[in-house]
Amino acid sequence: MKHATYRGLGMSVGVALCAILPMSVAVAADEAQVVRSIKLDPDKLAGVNLPSYEPFIAPEDVLEGNTRPRGEVLHYGEQLIVEVYEDDPATFNLGEPTVYDEFVLVLSGKLILTAADGVSQEYVAGDSLLVPKGFTGTWKMLGNYRELIVIERDAYEKAYGTGDD
């Protein structure tokens, strides 16, 4: 079955973010502070000029390919972190259980997740998924893989430290 890579992508992003980032115009009675929605940078979502950073997967957990992660945090809020992430084709072993729930919207390429029980699921551009806390298995990225991820800030900071570094 052929997938239209960007058909419905904008709607998927919009629906997903509306569900997990409920932001509306609100006026605080005593401060008169207006809170507005946040437009995510379309160039970053398209992978334009994403900065590189050090691989976060231990070399012994890279099963095939080379990891060359690129990405940028688009929002570091009180409750959620929103990031665009891109990498070269590679397969990682996730032997230790993940420490937080992670919402993923595949923007380009293909993702194949294989759980510890051997069951695989494939995702292509426009597909969204949730990788639940405790997941173990393999994470395989094909093509120029890029995703939008949303994670809960407190769980992230407990696992990796604060974002103030």
Question: What does the model show?
Answer:
By secondary structure, this protein is mainly beta. It has a single domain (9-160), classed as Sandwich (Jelly Rolls), CATH 2.60.120. The protein is 15% helix and 41% strand. The protein is built from three helices and ten strands. It has helices at 9-20, 42-45, 153-160, and strands spanning 26-27, 34-35, 62-65, 70-76, 80-87, 90-94, 102-115, 120-124, 128-131, 137-152. The strands form two sheets. Strands 3, 4, 5, 6, 7, 8, 9 and 10 form an eight-stranded antiparallel beta sheet that branches. The protein has a two-stranded antiparallel sheet with strand order 1-2. Strand 7 and strand 8 form a beta hairpin. The chain is globular and about 55 Å long.
Mean pLDDT: 85
Shape: globular
Spatial extent as radius of gyration: 17 Å
- What is the number of helices? 3
Quaternary structure classification: single chain
The share of residues in extended strands comes to 35-45%
Largest sheet: 8 strands, antiparallel
What would you give as the CATH superfamily? Jelly Rolls
Summarize the helices and strands and which ones pair or pack.
Layout: H1 9-20, E1 26-27, E2 34-35, H2 42-45, E3 62-65, E4 70-76, E5 80-87, E6 90-94, E7 102-115, E8 120-124, E9 128-131, E10 137-152, H3 153-160
Antiparallel strand pairs: 1-2, 3-6, 4-5, 5-10, 6-10, 7-8, 7-9, 7-10
